[in-house]
Specification:
Blueprint: H1 3-33, H2 52-82, H3 89-115
Helix pairs in contact: 1-2, 1-3, 2-3
Amino acid sequence: MDRTGTREKYGRSMAVAVGWYATAIAAVVVGTASVPSAPEVDCSAMFSCLSPLESLVLAGVFWGGPVLVALLVITAVVDALVVRRVSSVVLAGTLSVAVSFAVCAVVAAAYLGGRS
């Protein structure tokens, strides 16, 4: 396959990967938005008066952005390797996202395991 065809497959498989990330983010937002707030809230602790959706936005700013950037970088590298060997762009994008989530889970487990 020529370089243009490989680039086109890579771009379409990355679009599939970004679609998976958008779907996951939308699912988290919808799930969090449907959680009702506690009726009686003690606001003496910092950030204790935030609604579930406000808590999600706060966590997204501090954790979500860097994690999403790391996932996209890992996905781009893995996708460049996978797209040459897999004929389906949907499968290539999905596999690259799955590998990226696995790498992120291993890094998070190592980080959390090292803290205890």
